[in-house]
């Protein structure tokens, strides 16, 4: 698992070029495509929400979106309570269509799913 995780940094560096400084994700963050709810669920888990229908590939590249999601996941992983309780992920598919689907290449899908598996 760790080998795959760290291997992605060298295999697909384009996804991580916008990670630092944090301000590099301001454009993607302004669309509220993904983020946290202000409260935890009844089991104490952090609640992460992804709204794919709010993503417009002509305004926010997949690389920017991936970098922002990576930052959120890294932030969650630093919280001791989240390390114990875990995360609830809500995927809101409203408005997700061909525009979004065609904005993701097969390679992007492959590495996005690989990251989710780690």
What can you tell me about this protein's structure?
This protein is of the alpha+beta class and 118 residues long. The protein has one domain: Phosphatidylinositol Transfer Protein Sec14p (3-Layer(aba) Sandwich). Helix content is 44%, strand content 13%. It has helices at residues 2-11, 26-29, 62-77, 80-85, 98-101, 106-117; strands at residues 34-36, 46-51, 87-92. The chain has a three-stranded mixed β-sheet, with helices on one face. The radius of gyration is 14 Å and the shape is globular. The chain starts with a helix and ends with a helix.
How does the major sheet shape up? 3 strands, mixed
Radius of gyration: 14 Å
Number of strands: 3
For the terminal residues, how far apart are their CA atoms? Answer: 6 Å
| Fraction of residues in β-strands | 5-15%
Task: Give the overall average pLDDT.
Answer: 85
């Amino acid at each position: 698992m760790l080998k795959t995780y760290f291997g992605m940094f060298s295999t697909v560096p384009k996804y991580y070029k916008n990670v630092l400084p944090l301000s590099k994700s301001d454009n993607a963050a302004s669309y509220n495509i993904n983020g946290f709810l202000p409260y935890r669920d009844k089991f104490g888990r952090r609640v992460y929400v992804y709204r794919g229908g709010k993503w417009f590939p002509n305004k926010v590249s997949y690389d920017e979106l991936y970098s922002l999601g990576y930052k959120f996941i890294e932030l969650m992983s630093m919280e001791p309570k989240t390390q114990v309780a875990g995360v609830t992920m809500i995927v809101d598919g409203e408005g997700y269509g061909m525009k979004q689907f065609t904005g993701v290449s097969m390679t992007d899908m492959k590495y996005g799913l690989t990251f989710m598996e780690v």
